[in-house]
Amino acid sequence: MCLILLGYKVSKKYPLILAANRDEFFGRPTAPMHFWQDNSSILAGKDLDQGGTWFGVHKKGTFAALTNYRDPTSIKQKAPSRGEIIVKFLEYKKLTEIHFDAFKKQSNFYNGFNLVFGDKEKLFWFSNLKNAIEKIKPGIHGISNRFLNTPWPKVTSGKKALKQMISKDFTINSLFSLLTDQSIPDDIQLPHTGVGIEWERVLSPLFIQSEIYGTRSSTIMLMDQNGNIEVTERTYNPQNIFEYSDRHFIITS
C-alpha cells in the first residue's frame, strides 16, 4: 500500500477504522482479496509476481498492512519481497512485542518499509529504517511512503478528512469516496524523495492516476468492540475509476 489512514479508538462503534490505497504498476499481476488456498486462515489480495501481499487479515482477529519507504537511492536489487512480511506477522499465533524484537534482526534484509500490525487490543508501527517499535496511541494517523504521520500533503489531508467523517454517520462508501481524492498539491508542498518533480506530482494525490502506474485498489476495514472485522476491497478499472468491483468479508471473533 502507499497510503494507510487509521482512526484508532476515536469511534465508539468501531475502535479501529482503516482506509487505505494500494498503488502499483498496472502491468503487475495481482489476485483480488480472497482466503488463500494454501492458508485458508489468511484473507488478502496476492501479488502474483512475488507471492506476497500488501494487506491481510487473519481469522484469529489480527491484521497487517505495509507501505514502501520511497528512496530510490537505497534500493537493494536482491532484497526479498516485502510482501512476505505481512504473511509472517499474520501467522504468529499471538501478538507480542517479542515478535518485533526477533524480526528486527532480519528486517534490514528488505528494502525500506512501514508495517502496521494489530488486533482489538494493540496496534503497532514498525519501520526498518528506524528499527524501533512504536505502540500507536489513540487518534487519527496516516502513513504514506515515509514514516508514521510524516506530514506529506496526502497524509495531512487524508487525516483531516477521516477525522471529519468519523465525527458523522459515515458509511463504507463515504470512506471509499475519501480515498478517491485526486487533488494535486502545489509544488512547494511536495516532498523531495529522489524521483523528480514530475513523479512527485503524479504520486502526490490520495488517488493516483497515470498511464502506467496508479491506485489499483482501496481497502476499508472496520473492527468493532468485540473484535469482529468487516473488510471491503474495491478494485478499479485503470481507465475509469468509476468502474470498479467490490469484495466484502466479515470475520467474527
Please give the structural blueprint.
Layout: E1 3-8, E2 16-25, E3 30-35, E4 42-47, E5 55-58, E6 63-68, H1 83-90, H2 97-107, E7 113-118, E8 123-127, E9 132-135, E10 139-143, H3 153-166, H4 172-179, H5 197-203, E11 213-223, E12 229-237, E13 240-251
Antiparallel strand pairs: 1-2, 1-10, 2-11, 3-4, 4-5, 5-6, 6-7, 7-8, 8-9, 11-12, 12-13
Offer a concise description of the structure.
The protein is α+β, with helices and mostly antiparallel strands and 253 residues long. The protein has five helices and 13 strands.
How far apart are the first and last residues' alpha carbons, in Å? 26 Å
How many domains in all?
1
The radius of gyration computed from the alpha-carbon positions, rounded to a whole number of angstroms, is 17 Å
Task: Give me the CATH superfamily.
Answer: Penicillin V Acylase, Chain A
Description:
With 253 residues, this protein is an alpha+beta fold. It has a single domain, classed as Penicillin V Acylase, Chain A (4-Layer Sandwich). 19% of the residues lie in helices and 36% in strands. It is built from 5 helices and 13 strands. It has helices at residues 83-90, 97-107, 153-166, 172-179, 197-203; strands at residues 3-8, 16-25, 30-35, 42-47, 55-58, 63-68, 113-118, 123-127, 132-135, 139-143, 213-223, 229-237, 240-251. A 7-stranded antiparallel β-sheet has the order 3-4-5-6-7-8-9, with helices on one face. It is globular, with a radius of gyration of 17 Å. The two termini are 26 Å apart.
